Amino acid sequence: MPPSPAGTPAIPVDPQGAPAAVTVTEQQPPGVTGAAPTSGWLVLAGMLLVALNLRAAVTSLGPLLDEVRVGLALSGTMAGFVTTLPTIAFAGLGAATPWLVRRISPARLLALAMLALTVGQVLRAATGSAVVFLFTSALALAGIAVANILLPMLVKQHFPHRTGLVTGAYTMALTVGTTVAAASAVPVAHAFGSWRAGLGVWAGMAAVAVLPWLPAALRNRTVARRIGGVPRSVVRPGRTRLGWAMAVYFGAQSLSGYAIMGWLAQLFRDAGFRPQDAGLLLAGVTALGVPIALLMPTLAGRLGNLRPLIFALAAASSLAYLGLAFAPRGGAVLWVVLLAFGQGAFPLILATIGLRARTADGTVALSAFAQSTGYLIAALGPLLVGILHDATGAWLAPIGFLLVALTVQTCAGVLIARPRYIEDER
């Protein structure tokens, strides 16, 4: 085994030099005990392909929202519900994921999740019914919801000594997928003459993400049947102060994140930008977030206390919101840069989930609680932004609401800043 950097445990390697998946025994989460080890490179590649798909179905809709509203005759409130649907799906299905993991192997569960995402995106792009559009969108988002919870658990299970690095890698892949979808949704729609192409093209990327998990899904079929009687985890984040602080921070940052993904392009269009330029500005937020997504988990892993990061992210978001409220056109590029830095709260909290749990079992429990509860909180964001915008005909009130959410986020961040573990708070 080659030496690792000073102070950092080495990851085992296979004979070809690829990082071998770490087999977890006593600390392995329920539902994965007995699964055959998988090549570390294949696991990592599969995780990165899944991550590429975790926001494309959402951010491809924002730049095309006006076209979808006209094509399906959606009201402003219904459009607000469409932008809120991701958080509702992530909350409901995210809470059920630990139960699913105890009955279905993680590899099979991820393969099914990506299959649901593929089918859902194809069907929602083909329908002419608003109701069918909502249901098929929910199917696609259900696949994303399950994958959201599984990825932090897989990092802890397979790469326990590289949590920050691997979390940064898959968060960066997620950000790349988000950026590409936001930037190219309108050009793709124009190239094919329909908003349906701008939404449906991402189904192909989801189908590719199924492939790395198929061998393990088939191999672990009998394992999934044997583990139905595994007892429930004793880690209950909902009974701890840390669990609730993590959920509130995750929820508040997701609230602003999904409000931005759903409405920022429209805000720039209202400020006088062409649809293509508005989509590019939205893509700029996520594009600039790519290096931040890689850097933030590494910084979180090295800092003893996260307060400096939490306050810096809050300051950047505050300045961006004020700029969008009072000078959305004149300082658009600056506000995009500041928003990108402020949205670094997302990779920060993802890394913190792994840092605040000792075991893979604790990680999946904390991930499920923080994300499902957090997305339930976040569901208010796009919906209330839409309602406030419809009621006032301007963006000042919605941005004021986002500033209030940012204040709550920062207060919760102070509570999770100090190093401690969810297993110790039982």
Determine the CATH superfamily: MFS general substrate transporter like domains
- Rounded mean pLDDT is 82
Write the H/E string, N to C. HHHHHHHHHHHHHHHHHHH
Structural class: mainly alpha
Helix content: over 70%
Number of extended strands: 0
What is the total number of structural domains?
Answer: 1
Strand content: under 5%
CATH architecture annotation name: Up-down Bundle
Distance between the termini: 37 Å
Give the biggest beta sheet: none
Keywords:
Growth Hormone, Chain: A; globular; 73% helix; 426 residues; 19 helices; disordered N terminus; single chain; mainly alpha
Overview of this protein structure:
The chain is mostly helical and 426 residues long. It has one domain: Growth Hormone, Chain: A (Up-down Bundle), CATH 1.20.1250.20. It has helices at residues 40-52, 56-59, 65-72, 76-101, 106-126, 130-158, 163-192, 195-200, 203-210, 214-219, 221-226, 241-270, 275-302, 307-326, 332-342, 345-355, 360-378, 380-392, 396-416. The protein is globular. The two termini are 37 Å apart.
Summarize the structure.
The protein has 19 helices and no strands. It has 426 residues and is an all-alpha fold.
Topology:
Blueprint lengths: L39 H13 L3 H4 L5 H8 L3 H26 L4 H21 L3 H29 L4 H30 L2 H6 L2 H8 L3 H6 L1 H6 L14 H30 L4 H28 L4 H20 L5 H11 L2 H11 L4 H19 L1 H13 L3 H21 L10
Helix pairs in contact: 1-6, 1-7, 1-9, 4-6, 4-12, 4-17, 4-18, 5-6, 5-9, 6-7, 6-16, 6-17, 7-13, 7-16, 12-13, 12-16, 12-17, 12-18, 12-19, 13-15, 13-16, 14-15, 14-19, 18-19
